[in-house]
Amino acid sequence: MFTGLIEELGSVVALQGKSLKIRCNHVQDDLDLGDSIAVNGVCLTIINYSPQSIDAEVMPVTLETTNLGVLRPGASVNLERAMRLGDRLGGHLVSGHVDGTASIVKLQQKQDARLVTMQIPKELLSFVIPKGSIAVDGISLTVAQLAGNQVTVSLVGHTQKHTTLTGKRVGDIVNIECDQIGKYVNQLLGTQYADKTEGSLNLGFLQKQGFFR
């Protein structure tokens, strides 16, 4: 489990077969073989490390369904080690299991903030709400605006300086992970999952109990 707070920017050395080698400075300091690390928001397993780099195992399906498959030597990636129990949860709960990819359709500078608008797959819209949490390339962000299937996030100065999003251009592809709690709630209450019997957990039941009108 991760928090979406990026610890370091790494640089891709090579992607060979199932191994992704990344040059980095300090995320490897307390890693062991088999540990998890988020690379652009994708949870990967450490298979080797040195004082200068890490090697992570990447499955073919991961390369096909995330933006890791288009990485080239020299590309910058967001890195975050798995959180420890007892750590501050400064971002939000991020599993590292990417729900899909999105294309950047608009970039704006608004005073000190940088606004990034992405077109996300329609099947993910039910998990996204204004002011809710979303992970973009592993970065914990707040949904600033939702219009149709376009989601806008706002990058504060720190995020602009210490993540890869500042260098993105219109047309670039980013990894999207929707809020995990929202996905569970959606599955519990969605019409394709909810049991319609009396007393079951569904919208009608919650309304009857006074949770909303």
Provide a descriptive summary of the structure in words:
- The protein is mostly beta strands.
- Helices cover about 15% and strands about 40% of the residues.
- The chain is built from 4 helices and 12 strands.
- It has helices at about 60-65, 155-160, 180-190, 205-210; strands at about 10-15, 20-25, 35-40, 40-50, 55, 75-80, 100-110, 115-120, 135, 140-145, 150-155, 175-180.
- The strands form 2 sheets. Strands 1-2-5-4-3-6 form a 6-stranded antiparallel β-barrel. It has a 6-stranded antiparallel barrel with strand order 7-8-11-10-9-12.
- The longest helix is centred in the C-terminal third of the chain and has 10 residues, at about 180-190.
- The protein is globular, with a radius of gyration of 19 Å.
- The two termini are about 35 Å apart.
- The relative contact order is 0.17.
- The mean pLDDT is about 90.
Layout: helices, strands, pairs:
Elements: E1 8-16, E2 19-23, E3 36-39, E4 42-49, E5 53-57, H1 60-65, E6 76-81, E7 100-110, E8 113-119, E9 133-136, E10 139-147, E11 150-155, H2 157-162, E12 173-178, H3 180-189, H4 203-208
Antiparallel strand pairs: 1-2, 1-6, 2-5, 3-4, 3-6, 4-5, 7-8, 7-12, 8-11, 9-10, 9-12, 10-11
Structural class: mainly beta
C-alpha end-to-end distance? 35 Å
Largest sheet: 6 strands, antiparallel, barrel
Helix % is: 10-25%
From the spread of the alpha carbons, the general shape counts as globular
Spatially, the strands of the biggest sheet line up as: 1-2-5-4-3-6
Provide the residue-averaged pLDDT: 90
Task: Work out the number of β strands.
Answer: 12
Sheet-strand content, in percent, reads: 35-45%
What's the number of helices? 4
**Computed CA radius of gyration, to the nearest angstrom:** 19 Å
What is the succession of H and E elements? Answer: EEEEEHEEEEEEHEHH
Low-confidence stretches: none
